[in-house]
Each structure stands twice: as structure tokens, then as C-alpha cells.
Amino acid sequence: MPLPGTVTPGPGLGSPKEQAQQQASGQVVQRRVSSGDMPSTHYSDEAAQPGWGTLWRSLSRASQRARGPEGGVLLRSARLMYRSLRRSPEKGVAADPAHMATVAQKTQHPEAPSRNKDGVSQQASTAGPEDMGAEAEGKSVADLITERQLLAAFTQLQDLETKLVAEKTTRAYQQDPTAFARRAMDVCLHYDGLAAEIGAMVRETLGPAGVDAAGLTELARVVHAEEEAHPAPPEDGDFLRMPRRWRQHWEDAVRQSVQERVWRAGSGEAPQDDQRSPGLPHLLAALGCLVRGDLQKVRLEVQPAYAAAGFSAWEIYLQAFHSAVAQRLQELAQEARGCEQLYVLLDWAANVYRSPDFLGAPDLALPAEPLPPLLAPEVWAGLENDYTRFLETKIDSCFDSILQLERNRWAAAEAPEVLQGRYHALLSIDVHMLVGEHVKAARAISSELEATTLRICAQALGLFMPRFGKAFLESEGVSVQHLGAYINAFEELRTNLLTRFPGTFEELEKPLTRTTSTFQKHLLQSLQSDVQPLFRLLCTKAWLTQDTLQPLMNKVVAFARQLELVAPPRGQEVLHEAHRYVVREYLVQALRPRERFRGAERVIGSQKMNLEAQAISDTFQGLGSEASWLDQAISCVSEILGETNKDHIQRHLETLIGSYQDIRREHVLAVLSLRRLGRRRNQRLLQHTQDLLRAAAKAMNSGDTGGRALFQEIQVPTSMDVLVTCI
Fold first, then answer.
1. Which residues are 666's β-sheet partners?
2. DSSP structural state of residue 121
3. Digit-coded pLDDT (tens) for 250-272
4. Which candidate among 316, 328, 478, 487 keeps its CA 20 to 30 Å from the CA of 216?
């Protein structure tokens, strides 16, 4: 294995592409160092400039050629060495022209310094066996680094460093400063090569080859040994004894390795339909799988290996993965488009990554502290805002789809199902599923997003209800069955949504109530259009001898049977309205007769009206109507019509006006016109009822009627009989 290139620890980590380029350049340096090629000192015109300037230029050029993947270490080492030598207490070396000429002559002939097989230069005149301790054991420093015998390599480098420091202390280097600089540079290169090997081992730790526990333990011991050997920068600024900061280099290598692995996660997934890149769910799944597997390996295999040498690796790896995942998610957040992608990203960050089961075991759960939020608050808020903006459009689109489904059912003339004794419409299920799924999904992210989603759903449903009602009533699918089914659906929505989400759907109460009321009116109109022609047969001379009420009531009973399949509150309201409608229309026919009864016909008509009033009351009571206040209306009119004792008519009028406060003077005139009582009696009765009518009108204006309005919808034309009654 070639010797790794120079690696300089630093806090900054470049992009994966830049790191790959740097790694490639580092491999070139590795081949140079491992092959034994020392940095060349050949230069042409600069060779004529002897002394320290020549030495500095030689070191600078060598450092530029040998610069590793992260660059700068060798150049700084050269600068430190140059300054260290320049700070020599005696100026003789720099000032002695004879010595400068000697240095210039040696730099013009770089072959003069001999070179051992380990690649560490020695002086041609003064080199001895003691200069290279690596050969004593039969292996060079480069070989030891290549074989990853890190402690042995560091021990030999320390011996070489000690000898060089001793030479500098005794100023023995003054005889040949260039050769000394070369040997010092060799030591620096091998130190950097050892650091590069540490970085390579870190990069291989999480690779497919498995964990070399012994190697990681030795790595940790080498870091400890270097820290003990170079605890602090020397006071004299000697570059050879400067701390190498391998612990920081190791941490940077961990972060760089983790960042590269996280960045590559999912890049090999199968592309989606666009054939350009893997889908976001696949990418996040691959990212989670990689982080989970790597952290399990760190906790179960890597951490014990480092711990054997007193090294804590779990926290460093955990923070590195957390930081890399956060950076990757922020990149994906900038690329996320559409409601689905944004939700997948939010859900993964909030639920998948933070799940106690993310690492596959409770004791491996990611700690909440001291890890920072996976996404910065402003990034998270931006994602939620983008998600809600897309969500509004999506929910509107979903309601459009629901309306289209209902249109298809109307066109197909599909009758609604009957479930549990009620007409059932799929509209209720569709809306409940739509609201429930989006609210549940938002709740899994945050309570704030849940509240926002509820508000969006409530607003969209409030706009949908009148639009749906209009579309249905304008379609050809209007029927009693569908009207009843939709009324049931509206009642379910009103009851369930207000119960499940109190405080949110109150504003939905009004549009739901309005739409329900509109459908109830159309439901009643279906009965009215069916029975209206039958009312015209009432209160005629043919009616006296025929049973014209029974066919009408048969239709009412059939209609009421269908109301039993409507939710009780709404079905009961329609039944009450049907009861009021039948009584009102009966009175319309009685107060506006096409034919006048006289004598025996009037008595027979009065008796028949009494019987039919009782039949109407019994029928609706049997159907479940509780509007018993309607029963007296027809009876009072029939009593006035058939009363033989004219003095009792006043009592019947008092009962009629007291029971129905919406009655007006024209209604009393119409009732009196059914009898020919004479001008004086009519005037007396009208005068007597004037105070009662005034009190009734006052009660009507104050709204104190209990909803018992019957006569106000009865229009009584001014006929000749009514005029005669007035006169």
C-alpha cells in the first residue's frame, strides 16, 4: 500500500466533489513519498543566490510539490523551520560568505546528499548508522506506515526528531544547512504521511471491509503518544517539536468520512419515472438505512476498539452524523417540490429520525440533548409554510374530486344505500377521510401544523358546501332518496366534526345549516308538487259526497315513510313542515271556496271538515308528528261554518285567534264570509276581535309565537262575499 499523502487537520470540510479531487491529489503525493523520491532542490537561475534565501526557495518548492490533499502542512513546516533557523542565536551561518558559497555549491549539485532506502536524507559527509533508527529493526518508516504499524513508525520518527533537535541545539547543522533541511523535511513528510494513514483508516472504518479493532486501538494510542510527545508549542518556536494535533485531525477525518457517506446515500437507488434521480422517499429511506447501520457499527464495534485506548468515539461519530444529516436535509429541503415531497421530508425529520426505534434498539436511541435541531427553526418554518400553501391547493382539488364522484353517481342514477335504517351517502365518508387523514398526518409533525390543517379543512369545507348544494339541485339526480341521504351526510359532518375538533369547525355550522335547510325545503317541495293537485278537489260540492282526502293522505304517508330513513332531527322537522303544509293548504281551500254552501250543504260540509281534520291529526300523530297545535285550525273553521247558534261564533273566533297569533283581519273576514250573518253582527264580531287581533300582531312582531306560524302564508283574495261581510 502506498504511503498516504499529507493531510492537514482543519475544521472546514469541503463538498464531496472537492474532497474527491483533494483525495486524488493526495494519492500523487503518496506515490512520491513511498517511492523514496525526496522533494527536489533543482533550480536554475536561483542556484546562484546562496545562503538562506536559496534554502527557503528550495523548501518552498519542495513543499508545493509535496502538498497533500488538504494542503498547507508542508509549506507551514518549511516556514517554521526557516524561521527557526533564522532565529539562531549566532548570525554566523547567514552572514558567513564562505559558508554561503558552500551552501550554493551544494544546492547546485543535489546529488551530493546520500539517500537511504527509507527515504530519509542524510548528510553526505556526516551521516552515520545512528541517524536512521528505522534500519536497526530492518524496516523503514515508510514501510511501517504502509503496513500500518503506527506505533513503531511513530517511535522511529520520534527518534529521528530527537536527533535533529539535538543537532539544532548543538548547531551541528551549520556545516550543511541544506542537508539538515532535507532531513527535517523528510521527518515532516513522514509525520504527515502517518497523519494521512490515520485519515485513511478512519475512512475505511465504516466501509464494507469491516472494522479493524486492533488497528483502531493502535490509532488511538498513536494519537495519545503524539500528544504526550508534543504537549505544547515550544518556546523557541522549533517546528520539529510543534504539536501535530492528530486528535483534531482524527475528528475532522471522522466528519469528512461521515459527510461523504451521507452525501452518497441513495445515489445508487433506482430512478423514478423521470429517469433522472431517485425519488425523495427512496433517498430518505436509503439515508436512514445507512445512518442506522453505521451508528450501530460505531456503537457495537468501533467505540469498544477506541475505548480500549481511552478514546471516546461515540459522541464524535454521533455529532458528525447528526451534522451531516442536517446538512443533507437542508439541501433536500431546497429541492423539495409539491405537498407530498414536503410532507415526506417533514415526517422523516420529525418522526423517522427522532423515533426511539430509529437505531433498532432502545439503548441506541438518538439523544435529544445535546444534539441541536435537525433543521434550523427558520428552515423548519419555511417547510411548514410551503407545505400548508401546497396543502390548500391539494385540499381544494380533493373537494373537486369528491364533487365529480357525486356527479358521476347522479348521472348513473345510482340510488343511495340504506345502512342501519338510514339513507347513506358516500359524501360523508369521503369528507371524513379527507379531513381525518390530513389532520392525522399534520398531528404527527407538530401541533401547530395540525391546527393550521384543521383551519384549512374547515375553510375549504365551508366553501364546498354551498357549491355542492347548488350543483346537486341543478342536476337531474334530485330525488327524495338522494335528498334524504345528503341531509344525513350533512348531519353527520356537523355532529362528528364539531365533536372531534371542538373550537375549529364552529364556523362550519352556518354553511352546513343553510345547505341542510335548503335540502329540507326541496324535500318538502317534492311532496308539495305531488299532492298539490289533490287539494283542488276539497271543499267543493263533489267533495261532499266523495272521499277526496284519502288519496292525498296516502301520498303523505308514503312520503313520511321515506322520512323515517332521514336522521331524526332533520326528518322530524320535515314531517312537521309536511303536517303544517297539509293543514295550511286545506285552510286555503276552505277560505277560498270555488262554490258556496248554503243550508244543509253548509252543515254537511262542516261535519265533513271536522271528520277530515280528525283524520289528518290522527294520521300525522301516527307518523310521529308532534305538531298537535295544528289540530284546532280546521276544527275552528268547521265549527264557525256549521254553527247553528250564531252567538257561539264569537267564542269560536276567540279560540281561533288565541291559538294562531299570525292570523290577520282579512282571515277573519274570509271566515265570516262563509256565513251570511248580517252587517250588524259582522261589525260587532269584527269590533270584538279587534283587540285580540292587535294583541296577536304585537306577539308576532316580538317573535313570541314559538314558531307556530300558519295563517301568514295564506293569501286571501278580496272577493265580493268578503266585501259584503265588511259592509
1. none
2. B
3. 999 999 999 999 999 876 544 44
4. 328
pLDDT recorded at residue 370: 66
Return the CATH fold of 380-517. Answer: Tetracycline Repressor; domain 2 (1.10.357)
Which pLDDT score is estimated for 17? 41
CA atoms of 485 and 658, how far apart (whole Å): 39
CA distance 666 to 511: 38
256: Cα within 13 Å, side-chain hemisphere:
31
3-class secondary structure, 422: strand
* SS3 of residue 265 by DSSP: coil
Domain ranges of the chain: 16-197, 265-375, 380-517, 585-726
Type of residue found at 228: E
pLDDT: which is higher, 138 or 110: 138
C-alpha distances out from residue 1 to 27, 345, 723, Å: 11, 42, 124
> pLDDT tens for residues 631-690?
999 999 999 988 888 888 889 998 998 888 888 888 888 888 888 777 888 888 888 888
Q: Please return the burial class of 367, using the count of CB atoms within 10 Å of its CB with bins 0-12, 13-18 and 19+.
A: exposed
- Give the phi and the psi of residue 354 in degrees, each rounded to 5: -90, 5
Q: Are 201 and 148 in contact (CB under 8 A)?
A: yes
Task: Locate the DSSP E strands across 362-439.
Answer: 417-419, 422-424
DSSP-derived letter for residue 598 is -
Q: Global pTM?
A: 0.67
CB 584 within 8 A of CB 713: yes
Residue 115 DSSP SS3: strand
The residue among 625 and 723 whose pLDDT is bigger is 625
What gap in Å lies between CA 64 and CA 57, rounded to an integer?
11
Amino acid at 727: I
Question: Is 436 in contact with 429 (CB distance < 8 Å)?
Answer: no
Residue the block writes with cell 549566532: 90
DSSP 501-565: STTTSGGGHHHHHHHHHHHHHHHHHHHHHHHHHHHTTTTSTTGGGS--HHHHHHHHHHHHHHHTT
As a whole number of angstroms, the distance between CA 420 and CA 720 comes to 57
